[in-house]
Amino acid sequence: MALGSGSDVVLRIRSCRYVVHLGAHSLGRQDGCEQTRTATKSFPHPDFNNSLPNKDHRNDIMLVKMVTPAHLTWAVRPLTVSPRCVPAGANCLISGWGTMSSPQLHLPHTLRCANVTIIKHRECEDAYPGNITDTMVCASVRKEGKDSCQGDSGGPLVCNGSLQGIISWGQDPCAVSKKPGVYTKVCKYVDWIQKTMENN
User: Fold this and answer.
1) What is the pLDDT of residue 173?
2) Which of 17, 28, 173, 187, by CA, is between 20 and 30 Å from 98?
3) pLDDT mean over 183-196
4) Biggest alpha carbon distance in the chain?
5) Please, what are the domains in the chain?
6) pLDDT, average across residues 111-135
7) Is the dihedral of CA 35, 37, 42, 48 positive or negative?
8) Phi and psi of 123, rounded to 5°?
């Protein structure tokens, strides 16, 4: 997910530190539209707690500055980031290369997508008592079998063309009824994103 006018900043959850691949659809073959960038700096949220045994998922977000900007094409486009949070009931799209089965790992060769629906904050709190904050949003499919899963972390939750969430955590095994996927709520971090980009 490229952000900014120069398209040289990528938004990821804090736990991911990889070479940035843009425009990729298949992991097994090149389609000619892929771009690879390396990161020069990373900017984790200052309030993220990665120390064990107290690790939690609050502020699970990080900006990564790439050495060279992305080249915008039909396959590589920036997403908008809005301070306006989407309401419960909004239909959204998730994507990633995470496992297609759980708890057994079965990784795909091509990018997978699924339609999910934002659920009420109270319903999310009921699913994970004591673990949900106002900087998290939950989304699910009422029918079992579709969810973000291991390997999808850092992927986008896109609603109406806007980046509204970053895949963060959830139930293991995945895609269990009444255990939605949990996402970092990007609309709560817009000021931090803008200030971090301006200062770096």
Assistant:
1) 67
2) 187
3) 95
4) 46
5) 2-78+189-199 (2.40.10.10), 80-187 (2.40.10.10)
6) 91
7) positive
8) -65, -35
